[in-house]
Design a protein that fits this description.
single chain; about 425 residues; Aspartate Aminotransferase, domain 2; Aspartate Aminotransferase, domain 1; 3 domains; seven-stranded mixed sheet; 16 helices; about 15% strand; binds pyridoxal-5'-phosphate
C-alpha cells in the first residue's frame, strides 16, 4: 500500500505477491531470492568459453545422468548447448514478456527460421499475414516450400480470410504486430481464439515493433513471441540478436533443435543485449512520447498526405491498439504530399535529405533516430508500379524515432518540410 505521502507499508502477503513493473524487470528480471554472480560481481559476467570441464569421470557420469532429467543447475557441457551469460539474458526477457522461458538467437531472422523449422512438419501449412516482414515471407515461400511446407498469405486484419485459410494440415499462424511499415495491429484476442478452435494450431507474433513494454502477446493467449532483439531490446544499433519467448515446455523443445541447427548467440552479444535491456522501459517510454507528438504534428501539416501511427484515431487499428497496447511504439510512417511537376519519389527524397537529426539507414529501435524511404531501401529492385501492387507507395517515409529531445525532432521535421 502507498499512502499519499508516498510511504509504502506492506502486508506480509504483498511482499511475496507483488508483480514488478516493466522498468524493474528491465533491470532485474524476476527477483526471486539470492542474486549473486560468480565472485559477487554485480554485473552478469561474460562467460567467454566454448566448452566446460569436468573434474573426473564420476563428475561426467553425474552430469550425464542428470541431463536425462533436465540437467544440473549452473552446470554446462558445451557452448552450443548452453552459456550462463546467454541464460541470464533469456531469464530477463522471459520476465519482461510474462513468459515461462525465452531463448536467444544470433539474429531476429535466425529466431524466425529456427522456430519455423522446428515446429513445422513436412506436409503442413503455415498461414501468415501479408504485411509480414519481407524476409519471413521469403523464407516461407522459398525454403519451407522445398520441405513440402505450404505457406498461405492472408490480408492483415481480415479475420474471415484467416479462418477460411485454415486447413486440416494448418499448424501455425504467424503475424507481426505492429507491422512494418504501416503499423497494422493484429487483434491478439481474436487471433488466439481462432487458433484455439483447432488443437494443433500454434500462434506466433513477431512483436519487434511493440516491445514487451507496450504489448505482451502471451497475456492474450498467443503461443510464442519472437523479436528482432537487434532493434528495441538491445536498443543501441550495435548488435544483432533475436529471441523467442513462450511457455517453458515449448521453449525446451525449441532448445533441443537449436543444438542441432546450431544458431546460437555469442556471450559477448548477449552481454550487450542485457546492458541495453536495463534501459528498455526508459527508452521506449521516451520513444512512445516523441512518436505520438511527431505523428500529431505530421497529421496537421499540409505537406503530409497521410500518417500511419496506431496512436492516431485515423489509424485503421487505433481501437485494437488502444485495448491491447500501453504505448504505440517509436516508428511513425507517413506519406509526403505530391507537388506539381515533380515525381513524388524525388520530393520525398528531398525531404529525407533535408532532415538533420536522423541517419538514413534501415533498422529501428535504437537510441539514434533513423529514417528511410522504403521504396528506395527494401523495395528498390521493384518498379513504381510493382511497388504499388504490394501497397508500397513512393512517397512513404518510415521514421524510426530515437531518444533525442522531442522538441529537437519536431523542429527538424518542420524545417525539412519547409524545404520541399
Ligand atoms: C529487423 C526485423 C526482423 C529481422 O531481425 P534481424 O535481427 O535483422 O535478423 C524480423 N522482424 C521484424 C519485425 C524486424 O523489424
Amino acid at each position: 500500500m502507498i499512502d499519499f505521502a508516498g510511504k509504502v507499508e506492506l502486508s506480509k502477503n504483498e511482499t511475496s505477491q507483488r508483480a514488478f513493473g516493466r522498468s524493474t524487470r528491465s533491470v532485474h528480471g524476476e527477483i526471486d531470492g539470492r542474486r549473486a554472480n560468480a565472485n559477487h560481481a554485480l554485473i552478469t559476467p561474460i562467460v567467454q568459453t566454448a566448452t566446460y570441464t569436468f573434474d573426473d569421470t564420476a563428475d561426467v557420469r553425474a552430469f550425464m545422468d542428470a541431463k536425462m532429467w533436465g540437467g544440473l543447475p549452473g552446470r554446462e557441457e558445451y557452448g552450443r548447448y548452453g552459456n550462463p551469460t546467454v541464460q541470464a539474458v533469456e531469464a530477463r526477457i522471459a520476465a519482461l514478456e510474462n513468459g515461462g522461458a525465452a531463448m536467444l538467437f544470433p539474429s531476429g531472422m535466425s529466431a524466425v527460421t529456427q522456430v519455423l523449422l522446428s515446429i513445422l512438419p513436412t506436409g503442413s501449412q503455415v498461414i501468415f499475414t501479408d504485411d509480414c516482414y519481407k524476409k519471413t515471407r521469403q523464407f516461407c515461400n522459398i525454403f519451407l516450400a522445398r520441405l513440402g511446407i505450404e505457406s498461405v498469405a492472408v490480408p492483415m486484419g481480415d479475420y474471415e480470410a484467416l479462418e477460411a485459410a485454415i486447413q486440416p494440415n494448418t499448424r501455425l499462424i504467424i503475424s507481426e504486430s505492429p507491422t512494418n511499415p504501416y503499423l497494422r495491429v493484429a487483434d491478439l484476442n481474436r487471433l488466439a481464439a481462432i487458433a484455439g478452435k483447432h488443437q494443433r494450431i500454434k500462434t506466433i507474433i513477431d512483436a519487434t515493433f511493440a516491445t514487451p513494454i507496450n504489448q505482451r502477446p502471451l497475456d492474450f493467449g498467443i503461443d510464442l513471441v519472437v523479436h528482432s532483439a537487434t532493434k528495441y531490446l538491445s536498443g543501441h544499433n550495435d548488435i544483432m540478436a533475436g529471441v523467442a519467448v513462450g511457455e517453458a515446455g515449448l521453449i525446451h523443445a525449441l532448445r533441443q533443435s537449436q543444438g542441432v541447427l546450431g544458431g546460437i548467440t555469442d556471450p559477448h552479444a548477449a552481454y550487450l543485449l542485457e546492458r541495453g535491456l536495463k534501459t528498455l522501459e526508459l527508452r521506449v517510454t521516451r520513444q512512445n512520447q516523441t512518436a505520438q507528438a511527431v505523428a500529431e504534428a505530421l497529421e496537421a501539416h499540409p505537406k503530409v498526405e497521410r500518417v500511419w501511427y496506431p496512436g492516431l484515431a485515423s489509424h485503421p487499428d487505433h481501437e485494437v491498439a488502444r485495448q491491447q497496447m500501453s504505448g504505440f511504439g517509436g516508428v511513425v510512417s507517413f506519406e509526403i504530399a505530391p507537388i506539381e511537376n515533380e515525381d513524388v519519389l524525388d520530393t520525398t527524397s528531398r525531404f529525407i535529405d533535408a532532415m538533420k537529426i536522423p541517419y538514413i539507414a534501415p533498422s529501428l529501435g535504437g537510441v539514434e533516430s533513423l529514417i528511410e524511404q522504403p521504396s528506395l531501401m527494401s523495395y528498390y529492385e521493384l518498379s513504381t508500379e510493382e511497388r504499388l501492387n504490394i501497397g508500397m507507395k513512393d512517397n512513404l517515409v518510415r521514421f524510426a524515432i530515437g531518444i533525442e529531445d522531442t522538441a529537437d525532432i519536431l523542429f527538424d521535421i518542420e524545417q525539412a518540410l519547409a524545404q520541399i
